[in-house]
Structure formats: C-alpha cells, structure tokens
Amino acid sequence: AYADALIVNRTETCGCCGAWVERMISAGFKAEVNFVDDEVLRSIKSQLGVPADLSSCHTATIGSYFIEGHVPAEDIRRLLIERPRALGLSVPGMPIGSPGMEMGNNKEPFETLLVLENGVTQVFNSHTPQSSV
Fold it and tell me: Highest mean pLDDT range out of 3-17, 59-73, 97-111, 119-133?
C-alpha cells in the first residue's frame, strides 16, 4: 500500500479518466477524485507546471509529483521508489492500450515521460505492446 493517495482532477464527462482511476485502485493506490470544469483543470495544470504540449485529459498528483494522463501504475510505483528530482510523469495524448484506453488487442506503443524541473523531458519508460502469438 502507498501512503500517498492519488489526487485526481478530471472533468465529469471524461469516461477514460474514470477507467484510469479504476486501474490505479486495482493496482493498490488510494485515489481521491475531484470533478472540476475545464477552466479549473487548466489552471491546476499550469500551477503544477504541466507543459501544454504534454497535457492529457486528467491530471493527478501523488506526493510532490504530478501524474498527467494515462500513466501506468508500475511507472508511478517506480517514481515513488526512485524519487527523482522532477515535476512528474506524463503520457501525452490518449494512446490506445494505455491504462483506461484499452481496446481489445488494439495497442499502440507509447512512452511515459519524466518532466524535469526545467520542463525538459526524458523517457522514463517505453511501453511496446507484446505481440500475442
């Protein structure tokens, strides 16, 4: 169990955000969800330092980090273990096959980006679908 809860800010109309939250809870995270409108969500993103080009449909925080978009649970775990000097993690856009965006066997590769304090990003983890034989 993780001491820090995920605080998730999302709009009420976004279905995949809800699906992502369910994935995080089943992975062992505590989650508190705040329903906000688009304007509030945008201001939360800018306060946290989420770069506009990395933004997704929901913004969470855990401890001192932001978690933007459909970041897999294992990446959040690793972030909390390694505790890098960084603002947070982002999965920009809404890649098919990321947590909450499952569509059967249809998966596209995506990267989880670590956003450093100066806004520079580096690849934290690459998610390449395992081809099912």
Answer: 59-73
Instruction: Return the residue matching tokens 């913004």.
Output: 59
Average pLDDT in the chain: 91
> Burial of 59 by CB count in 10 Å (0-12 exposed, 13-18 middle, 19+ buried)?
buried
108: Cα separation from own chain's centroid: 17
Non-local (6+) Cβ contacts of 125 within 8 A are 72, 74, 75, 78, 111, 112
CB-based contacts of 13: which residues, under 8 Å, 6+ apart? none
Higher pLDDT residue, 57 or 111? 111
Instruction: Classify each residue of 4-32 as buried b or exposed e, where b means 16 or more C-beta atoms within 10 Å of its C-beta.
Output: eebbbbbeeebebbeebbebbeeeebebe
C-alpha span between 110 and 10 (Å, rounded)? 22
Q: Please report the pLDDT score of residue 36 as a whole number.
A: 95
Using an 8 Å Cβ cutoff, are 67 and 88 in contact?
yes
pLDDT at residue 75 greater than cutoff 60: yes
